[in-house]
Write a structure and sequence with these properties.
- The chain has one domain (about 15-85).
- Helices cover about 30% and strands about 40% of the residues.
- It has 2 helices and 4 strands, in the order βββαβα.
- The chain has helices at about 45-65, 75-85, and strands spanning about 10-20, 25-35, 45, 65-70.
- The longest helix has 17 residues, at about 45-65.
């Protein structure tokens, strides 16, 4: 797809690091599937991954967790449920 930021580059499959900072929680998720612009580096996170990360962040906020760094993997949502309830 054409990058909507620089409007020059094309995107290719890659990985991104997503940082979520809200309500006292800092969640960093590494190696998230994304489309990455070959020109400017803008990252477009996979929709499924974004939903899972937001669900995990919501769950973690409710537990009072302050900071977590995780590596994204196939069963990310399942991992978060096991680790954080």
């Amino acid at each position: 797809m054409k990058c909507v930021i620089c409007r020059k580059g094309e995107t290719k499959a890659g990985k991104a690091t997503v940082t979520f900072d809200h309500g006292g929680l800092v969640l960093v998720v590494r190696e998230v599937p994304a489309q990455v612009c070959t020109t400017c580096g803008e990252e477009y996170v996979d929709e499924k991954a974004a939903r899972e990360i937001l669900a995990a962040a919501s769950r973690l906020e409710r537990t009072g967790t302050q900071a977590v760094i995780l590596k994204y993997q196939q069963d990310f949502e399942k991992l978060c449920k096991q680790l954080f309830g």
